[in-house]
């Protein structure tokens, strides 16, 4: 089973500044958060808008918001508690008393309500219908934040071919948001190399923090393996890769594991636990790193078998298929 990356949050109203502050957010939750500082973060700028302390399973914000609706992150340090939501200039309620923090019932925001409604609608559709609904939705809202945020949460899943024509319909203002700029960065970098193509070189860091290029390890048969410490099928595959490496590492064969991770210590621990004694690299930017953008990584595990001349000769080999291919090649 492969891990698919996707997430959607939808906004249906244009963002407008306002003078009269009517916003408040009153929350109730389980006691696990008591004593922790809860931060309200502008998702676009990354700027902290406010903070408060959770006491007796309750918290309150009376923040002057720069504009509404606004997409925010509500989180504690290290993301022990974390969720994302839309805020409006209204009195709002966040109810996680009898459910997890990330699944809280949120009241008082028309934008959040519409987001949840559309998400539920999309989740019930077959993929082809879902993509058509989302694409048309972005077309209809290409000149406000709604359109670009929707595309931002789907472009990795969609890939370049579907994303680019939709992105090209966005207004200049939307393209200049943080969301629009990241989508443009993906479209600029993405090459989606396939069997018969040359591999694409990229600079990454090893666990010691040293910058290394993939090209430094070429000139032999190389398995370029994309994985993550949080991907159970990847961890299972690592067991098989260890055996293949032991058989062929003295026969001009190398494995380069590129971790689609974000946490350095978890990455290091995964390398040690799985006994990955080959080349380990990452940019620790997860699915939104340059290497993931270049190779179009949207599911894990993924791999490329590259020959001594740098040409991709196979993709996504696992288990017995990988064993047999390596036997023939080496």
Concise overview:
The protein contains eleven helices and 17 strands. With 330 residues, the chain is of the alpha+beta class.
Could you walk me through the main structural features you see in this protein, from its secondary elements to its overall organization?
The chain has helices at 110-123, 127-140, 145-152, 155-158, 160-167, 172-175, 178-189, 232-248, 264-274, 290-295, 319-329, and strands at 3-4, 24-29, 37-42, 48-53, 58-61, 70-75, 82-87, 91-96, 105-107, 203-205, 211-213, 221-227, 253-259, 279-281, 299-300, 302-306, 312-315. It is α+β, with helices and mostly antiparallel strands and 330 residues long. The chain folds into 3 domains: 3-112, Immunoglobulin-like (Sandwich); 125-189, no CATH class; 203-329, Glutaredoxin (3-Layer(aba) Sandwich). Strands 14-13-12-16-17 form a 5-stranded mixed sheet, covered by helices on one side. A 4-stranded mixed sheet has the order 5-2-8-9, with helices on one face. Mean pLDDT is 92; it is low at 1-14.
């Amino acid at each position: 089973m492969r891990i698919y990356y996707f997430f959607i949050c939808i906004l249906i109203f244009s963002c407008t500044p306002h003078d009269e502050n009517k916003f408040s957010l009153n929350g109730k939750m389980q006691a696990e958060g008591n004593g922790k500082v809860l931060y309200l973060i502008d998702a676009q700028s990354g700027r902290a808008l406010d903070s408060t302390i959770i006491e007796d399973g309750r918290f309150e914000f009376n923040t002057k918001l720069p504009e509404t609706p606004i997409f925010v992150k509500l989180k504690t340090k290290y993301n022990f508690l974390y969720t994302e939501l839309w805020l409006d200039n209204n009195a709002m309620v966040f109810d996680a008393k009898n459910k997890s923090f990330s699944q809280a019932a949120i009241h008082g925001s028309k934008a959040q309500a519409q987001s949840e409604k559309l998400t539920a609608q999309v989740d019930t559709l077959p993929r082809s219908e879902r993509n058509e609904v989302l694409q048309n939705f972005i077309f209809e809202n290409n000149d406000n934040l709604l359109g670009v945020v929707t595309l931002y949460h789907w472009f990795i899943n969609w890939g370049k071919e579907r994303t680019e024509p939709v992105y090209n319909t966005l207004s200049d203002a939307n393209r200049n948001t943080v969301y629009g700029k990241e989508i443009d960065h993906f479209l600029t970098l993405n090459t989606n190399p396939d069997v018969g193509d040359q591999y694409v070189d990229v600079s990454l860091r090893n666990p010691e923090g040293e910058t290394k290029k993939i090209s430094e390890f070429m000139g032999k048969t190389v398995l370029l393996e994309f994985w993550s410490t949080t991907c159970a099928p990847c961890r299972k595959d690592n067991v098989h890769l260890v055996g293949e490496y032991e058989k062929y590492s003295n026969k001009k064969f190398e494995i380069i594991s590129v971790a689609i991770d974000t946490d350095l210590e978890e990455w290091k621990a995964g390398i040690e636990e799985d006994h990955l004694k080959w080349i380990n690299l990452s940019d620790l930017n997860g699915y939104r790193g340059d290497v993931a953008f270049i190779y179009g990584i949207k599911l894990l595990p993924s791999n490329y078998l590259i020959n001594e001349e740098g040409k991709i000769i196979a993709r996504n080999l696992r288990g017995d298929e990988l064993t047999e291919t390596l036997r023939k090649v080496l």
